[in-house]
Specification:
The structure holds two protein chains of two kinds. By secondary structure, chain A is mainly beta. Helix content of chain A is 6%, strand content 48%. Chain B is 14% helix and 38% strand. Chain B has one helix at 3-19, and strands spanning 27-31, 37-38, 44-49, 59-63, 76-77, 84-88, 95-104, 110-119. In chain B, strands 1-3-6-5 form a four-stranded antiparallel beta sheet, with no helix packed on it. In chain B, a hairpin with a 5-residue loop joins strand 7 and strand 8 (110-119). Chain B starts with a helix and ends with a strand. The interface between A and B is medium-sized, with 18 and 22 residues.
Chain lengths: 185, 120
């Protein structure tokens, strides 16, 4: 983690993503590897003044990094990955702004729109941006979260058909804090 | 015990263990609720969490618009129900008050939050 401020609900961190080539199903997997040093940033709007209370449950996140491949520019061009999300947390609204008495499952919902994008930086596709707009929602509790989003191409270069994303996260550190979920160091 | 029965048993134990797991503590119920307008002055602020709390490190502070504390003593975690924390209040004049809570769950994870209430 690079920076955190609880008062202003800001978090920034860095990491490294690695997609190892030659693994997985040959029909969809790349033969080359891709490494992405990544910067992550998130900002909640809980520090907005009182007249803007209903905007406090909003949050935005960003993720940026160059996708560096082990392939040639022709077969696996480098690109720059950039992604954003805009979220509105119903749990935050009910706990920290205004308790509307919403019942389950609505009280645990976080409507979200994600924008995962990538701009090619080498080869024949240099300068071209592809990506998706993914509107949907996340339902979460203390043990994990489920997400459901539509996947809408931003342009023809990305595709022409709408897909669907289903996500399931299990919080091992909360379910198995002394074994599987224990920090490595 | 055959293999299938052993696997089912392990699976069911895993689910049972998950129910007893510790986690970050978040409010499930607040009295008065976030953003509530109340009259007359409430005698206490009480918050129920979704996990047991460490009394020594958990707290509720209530302050007026000038940042001055309006509580009568420290917040208390119920010894019979460690998910319940409350703090008694002085008699409050009409106005807006800020409730700031810190919850340290029994596994050491710390969460915090704040909301306002109005007294008529």
């Amino acid at each position: 983690m690079a920076y955190a401020s609880a008062r202003h609900e800001i978090l920034a961190s860095v990491g490294l993503l690695a997609a190892l080539g030659g693994t997985g199903a040959k029909s969809i997997a790349n033969s080359f590897s891709t490494f992405t040093p990544t910067a992550y940033v998130g900002k909640g709007f809980g520090d907005l003044p009182a007249p803007l209370d209903l905007l406090r449950p909003f949050a935005i996140t960003g993720q940026f990094g160059p996708n560096i491949t082990t392939a040639s520019s022709r077969n696996g061009p480098n690109s720059f990955g950039w992604a954003f999300t805009l979220q509105y947390s119903i749990p935050y609204l009910q706990e920290q702004v205004k308790d509307l008495g919403l019942p389950q499952p609505f009280s645990n919902l976080v409507p979200v729109v994600e924008f995962p994008l990538s701009t090619c930086t080498a080869g024949a596709c240099s300068g071209q941006t592809t990506g998706f707009i993914d509107p949907g929602f996340i339902w979460l509790n203390r043990y994990g979260q489920l997400g459901l989003e539509a996947q809408i191409p931003v342009n023809r270069a990305t595709g022409t058909q709408v897909g669907v994303l289903l996500q399931a996260h299990v919080y091992f550190d909360d379910i198995f804090p002394n074994s599987l979920g224990k920090p490595l160091f | 015990m055959n293999t299938l029965r052993a696997r089912l048993l392990i699976g069911s134990l895993a689910m049972a263990t998950a129910q007893l797991a510790f986690a970050h503590a978040y409010p499930t119920h607040e009295v008065p609720g976030a953003g509530a307008t109340v009259s007359p002055s409430p005698q206490e602020v009480a918050i129920d969490f979704d996990d047991g709390l460490e009394p020594a490190f958990s707290s509720i502070k209530v302050t007026d618009a000038q940042g001055k504390s309006v509580t009568k003593g420290k917040a208390v975690v119920d010894s019979k129900n460690t998910k319940h924390m409350s703090v008694p209040l002085k008699v409050l004049a009409p106005g807006i008050y800020t409730v700031a809570w810190v919850a340290v769950a029994t596994d050491g994870h710390r969460t915090q939050g704040h909301y306002t209430i109005s007294v008529k």
